[in-house]
Design brief:
Layout lengths: L1 E4 L2 H7 L9 E4 L1 H17 L8 E6 L5 E4 L3 E5 H6 L3 H16 L2 H12 L1 H15 L3 H11 L4 H4 L4 H17 L5 H9 L13 H5 L4 H12 L10 H18 L2 H7 L7 H13 L3 H14 L4 H13 L3 H14 L4 H12 L4 H17 L4 H13 L3 H14 L3 H14 L5 H15 L1 H12 L1
Parallel strand pairs: 3-5
Antiparallel strand pairs: 1-2, 2-3, 4-5
Helix pairs in contact: 2-4, 4-9, 4-10, 6-7, 9-12, 10-12, 13-15, 14-15, 15-16, 16-17, 17-18, 18-19, 19-20, 19-21, 20-21, 21-22, 22-23, 22-24, 23-24
Length: 452
């Protein structure tokens, strides 16, 4: 699992994603893979191309999920942990998909842009202050921006909520699933209806709940031929494993041991405790616990990935390669698992290993052109191989993916000086410069930042 900060420029471009301002994103092959298994059939049922819908997982224990313009779905780790079953979480995803398919964000766009203009301006000033080396002033401005009523402006109307509920029920039925999970999820939090806005969970501040809404959804769901379809034992197990993983990585070790005591000998509990030992720097114990997991499920790519991660971060890159390679062999389609292997290979001094790493990173970047960490690793690889121009170009790509346009511009310019003119690499560096220069929004932000 890797934690990343959310790009501030990206958040501004997404406009409606302001609730995510303070969170970091999570990249993890196992978690993302399961969430995609839940979401992609629902996207297809909504006549959306799954490849065009971005699914982000945010490191935030609050219970929330939301969508933004450009077909972006955000899930907090808190809502994953709060869901009792896969069907509940699928229901939430189906509801958010209903907002996309119903065009709710587009209809709100004009009203929100007018109402939120002071807030966006304040946020912009805060961001510029941070960029200018005044983090305290920047944080103060960013915090004050919330006073302009972020959650109010980005809340969905009750009509839109009811519409998204009905759409969710249809999507679930079209995929042969029950909508009972979504209904149970709402029922568990029905008490939120009578609470003041400040005391509600973030999800129910932007998604106003009402008894009438729940009753209307119940009528729709109970009429479905799939109302009695249950989550399979395999689905429940995999969901429990993902929840254990999130808890193991994001909660304090002591909290993990309290939630998953030694008396619990289930595989999810063993998984959570192994990760907690790793997080508490008890490397020897962590490796022993992961070895036990691999003995139980030798074909599990994520157990092998975890073992490799612990070894790598303990300074044993060469030993880690075996386990990362095993993970890739078991799940060859995963770009993130290939990225882990590439990182371990780059850390060695072997020319042969570096050649393998280049092939792996080429696959990752082809699958995920905006993966900034992959570009970072490629820049390191090119530098160690003596390809200075390509290293600078990869750094420019990394910065561009992170929407750090000053850095992207700087390194693209420097890459052009080292690359042979009119080669594909030289033209790509030139393209980065042209795009930055031609985009009026990017120019405005860069000009404002220079003044500060």
């Amino acid at each position: 699992m890797r934690l990343f900060g959310i790009s501030i420029a990206l958040l501004l471009s997404l406009a409606f994603g302001l609730p995510a301002l303070a969170q970091g994103s999570i990249r993890d092959a196992e978690i993302e893979g399961l969430m995609r298994e839940y979401a992609d059939p629902i996207f297809k049922a909504a006549n959306l191309n799954p490849a065009s819908v971005n699914l982000y997982i945010l490191n935030d224990r609050t219970m929330n999920a939301f969508v933004t313009r450009g077909q972006n779905v955000f899930l907090h780790t808190g809502i994953i942990l709060q869901a009792d079953t896969p069907n509940e979480l699928k229901g939430v995803i189906a509801h958010e998909t209903g907002h996309i398919s119903g065009g709710h964000l587009a209809r709100q766009s004009d009203a929100i842009s007018k109402a939120a203009r002071p807030m966006i301006l304040t946020m912009g000033l805060g961001i510029l202050a941070v960029m200018a080396g005044e983090p305290q002033a920047g944080v103060a401005l960013l915090s004050s921006a919330q006073q302009f009523g972020t959650l109010t402006y980005f809340a969905h109307s009750r009509i839109q909520e009811a519409s998204a509920d009905q759409a969710a029920a249809i999507f679930l039925e079209d995929t042969g699933q029950s909508g009972t999970g979504l209904l149970k999820f709402y029922e568990r939090f029905r008490f939120q209806e009578v609470m003041s806005g400040a005391k509600r969970y973030p999800y129910f501040r932007t998604h106003p709940l009402s008894s009438a809404r729940i009753d209307s959804l119940a009528n729709k769901i109970n009429a479905s031929e799939f109302v009695d379809v249950k989550d399979s034992e395999e689905d429940l197990f995999r969901f429990a494993m993902v929840k254990a993983k999130i808890t193991g990585f994001l909660e304090s070790p002591q909290s993990v041991f309290n939630q998953y005591p030694e008396t619990d000998q289930s595989l999810p509990a063993k998984y959570a405790r192994a990760i907690a030992h790793y997080q508490s720097a008890s490397t020897k114990i962590a490796l022993e616990k992961i070895e036990e997991l691999i003995e139980i499920q030798p074909e599990n790519p994520y157990f092998n990935e975890l073992y490799g991660q612990v070894l790598f971060e303990s300074g044993k890159a060469k030993q880690a390669i075996k386990y990362h390679q095993r993970a890739v062999d078991l799940a060859p389609g995963s770009a993130l698992l290939r990225l882990n292997l590439a990182q371990a290979l780059i850390a060695t001094k072997s020319v042969e290993d570096r050649k393998k790493a280049f092939e792996l990173l080429s696959f990752v970047i082809q699958q995920e052109p905006q993966n900034s960490f992959a570009w970072y690793e490629l820049s390191i690889l090119h530098e160690r191989m003596g390809n200075i121009g390509l290293a600078k170009l990869a750094t420019a790509e990394q910065a561009y993916a992170m929407q750090d346009f000053f850095r992207a511009q700087s390194f693209a310019s420097r890459a052009k000086l080292d690359l042979t003119p009119n080669t594909p690499q030289w033209r790509r560096a030139n393209d980065i410069l042209l795009v930055i220069a031609a985009d009026p929004q990017i120019r405005r932000y860069m000009e404002a930042a220079r003044k500060h």
